[in-house]
Amino acid sequence: MQGDIITYDYFGSLYINMTNRCDCHCVFCIRDEDSSALGGLWLQEEPSREEALEDILSKDLSQYSEIVFCGYGEPTCRADDMLWLCDQLHAAKRADLPPIRLNTNGHGSLINHRNIAPELKGRLDAVSVSLNGSNQEEYLRLTRPGSGEKGWDAMLDFVREAVKYVPRVMVTIVDYDKTPAEIAACRALAEGLGAQFRVRPYG
Questions:
Q1: Which of the listed residues 42, 154, 169, 187 has the most CB atoms within 10 Å of its CB?
Q2: Could you tell me if 5 and 52 are in contact, meaning their C-beta atoms sit under 8 angstroms apart?
Q3: Distance CA 7, CA 203 (A)
Q4: Cβ atoms of 57 and 85 closer than 8 Å
Q5: What is the pLDDT of residues 54-110, one digit of tens each?
């Protein structure tokens, strides 16, 4: 773990960098760049959950608007460790603990072979799910999940489930090769799933 960055400050939030692993290969992702260009966030070794907890609790958490599970990998590849960390952070009863959010591709239930959405209740305050396309064809073109068409269905199912258990669920797209009509269609899909919608700038 020497030299690896477990937590980092990004626009006033504390981001938790747990893994490089991801089941997608999005066309706009910078994961394929040389590791030296990734700001030191490419892990040489995944931190243990105890190391991650120690790192988080060593911070003055009052300076952050959120704690966010998000690095260069998909956090739900380590779902059990993420849930454990949420439990430990709440159990610490820190008065300065900010809301906790998960940034995800929505494949957590597919990756872990179980519906993880109910397990998020009381642990996460918000979830942000990458949509990237208003239909299966566009989604597969941009996201390129290893599971193929199953990835599209899994992502939609995860959003439907997450809104039952997490106070705030957002569906996002990256403003990459998007027409106004496609953005509007993505918004309609997100809101139809019961989620909020947000466009993230590319680059």
A1: 169
A2: no
A3: 21
A4: no
A5: 999 999 999 999 999 998 899 999 999 999 999 999 999 999 999 999 999 999 999
